Amino acid sequence: MDQRQATLETLIQPTVEGLGFELVRVVVSGRHRPTLQVMAERVDRAPMTVEDCEAISRAISAKLDVEDPLPEAYTLEVSSPGIDRPLVKAADYARFAGHVAKMECREPVAGQRRFTGRILSATETTLLLATETGEVELPIPSITRAKLVLTDELIRAAQAGKVTH
Fold first, then answer.
1. Fold classification of 3-79 (topology level)
2. More confident of the two residues 1 and 96
3. pTM score, two decimals?
4. Which fold has domain 90-159?
5. What does the domain layout of the chain look like in residue ranges?
6. If residue 6 lies in a helix (H) or strand (E), which one and from where to where?
7. Sheet containing 75-79: which strands, arranged edge to edge?
């Protein structure tokens, strides 16, 4: 995460949490007219609604208008993380243990940087992943990108309310 995104996350997080949501991720993309993408989910883990996204968007817009952290014109996009959601925090890996995820590491681990496998367990600093070639332990701070893989098992879990999006 770059400094601008970290600053935006720090600015936005209290507003999102004050509305009863958890901030999942903040991403700024694009050059000429950047898009500020904010992903959030309900603290109660109920499915996000369009009204939830609208409420977050209105509150964040008001905060950003006052603080003005982005000097250029931008587009604000608020969404839920979806079923095949990004995994950002150590708690995400623990929460979705048993499901398949794809990830990329900053430095090679066991000779590779990209992994796909079933999440076995996670601590604050380490992820244990079962891949086709065996188990691998990944340092969570080294993971630069990770997301759940859309599988029949994940869809069934979401439909049963065991995994929320």
1. GMP Synthetase; Chain A, domain 3 (3.30.300)
2. 96
3. 0.85
4. SH3 type barrels. (2.30.30)
5. 3-79, 90-159
6. helix 3-18
7. 21-29, 35-42, 75-79
* Pair of tokens at residue 50: 């369009």
Q: What is the pLDDT of residue 47?
A: 87
Indicate the burial class of 117 (C-beta count within 10 angstroms; 0-12, 13-18, 19 or more): buried
**What is the number of helices (H) and of strands (E) in the chain?**
4, 8
Q: What pLDDT was estimated at residue 146?
A: 97
Structure tokens at 119: 């999440």
The distance from CA 91 to its chain's CA centroid, rounded to whole angstroms, is 11
14-20: list long-range contacts, CB under 8 Å, 24+ apart: 15/59, 15/60, 15/63, 16/40, 16/56, 16/59, 16/60, 17/43, 18/59, 19/55, 19/56, 19/59, 20/44
Per-residue pLDDT tens over the stretch 35-46: 999 999 999 988
